[in-house]
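Sample pair:
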Amino acid sequence: MALVAPPVQGDGMTIEAFLFILVAILGTAKLLGELAERIGQPAVLGELIAGVVLGRSLLGIVDPDEEVIHLLAGVGVIVLLFEIGLETDIKRLLKVGAASSVVAVVGVAAPFLLGYLTVSAMGLQTLPAIVIGAALTATSVGITARVLSDLGRLQEPESQIVLGAAVIDDVVGLIILAVVAQLVAGTEVTAGSVAVTTLLAFGFLGVTLLVGRIAVPPLFRWLDTLGRSSTLGTMALLLAFVTAYLADAAGSALIVGAFAAGLILGPTPQAESIQRGVVSLGQFFVPIFFVSVGAAVEVQSFLRPGVLLMGLTLIAVAIVGKVVAGYAPVWFRGKKIVIGVGMVPRGEVGLIFAQMGLASGVLDAGGYSALTLMVLVTTFIAPPLLKALFPKRAPAGPSPGGMAEMTTEA
């Protein structure tokens, strides 16, 4: 029998029930996240497992369909992508070397095509196949960067290529997500509709960055003269929420707007102060998103042969697609397998695709569980494989938080 939270009153949740659920989410996510890091895995893996434990399959404490949980998780995604934008150096996006660009392009195209064709052959219709293929394009730069930093290998040529390609993948992944979001909303799947949505997403991002780079820095310089860091943090979040809203209103995706706000503020002198506040806020909201994602997994569905087969197939396709990308820059003489493995973990962006597919009804519980299994496995296997391929040595590069200062020409 599932363990349940205190009862609700009428059609709403009581404050007692809400606090009970929050304590369960944050406490379990923090505990399992710490345990994951103790064994050399990213904290997000522990947070996902926390969701599975607390969700409908086991304890039944967290219902991801509950409106308040859904809203908090949505804020968590916006904060997460805003934070990623703050940590991304847009100049590096424009100056990465040819090897990074080739790896990024192949690292998006190969997994998408392999995933789409594979699940189509398994009987899925066009739209679910597109969502699954899109989910396979993601790369979690945070996970790979953390491992390379711990190994003292951030300055290696292979690492430079991986980090540059992963940053490009993040941006392309956000654009693909905006396209897919339009498709699942009912737009006809045609080359023309995809082209229009893609141009709209690129156009919004470009206009926002252009206008924001002119208007936002002077505003935050003035705010900085007031001497209150809390005001900077509040206004930064306000900017993220406004750009997310405008992105949605323009037909793009909320997270594209949040990411754009981070890119605008990233180069400003106030970015470090803003980032401290965002990280603190993210410690509350972001785990709620990952726990809600894990809570939507139906463990029992893994026992169904079709779901397990699809999950294992997606894992194989996800790994092969990224490893192939590592070998794409044929002129590079380093360890291409390291590049491929470094691109394997799907992390948070893959989960966002999966959650969007489930929430829109495009994916059923089986397809969602298969995708989540793929994200879990690729996130889990990449750190130990990188450690095996790159022996540890004394750290020589900056921490992941200082990645933006690196040069990634390769």
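The chain has one domain: 75-287+305-405.
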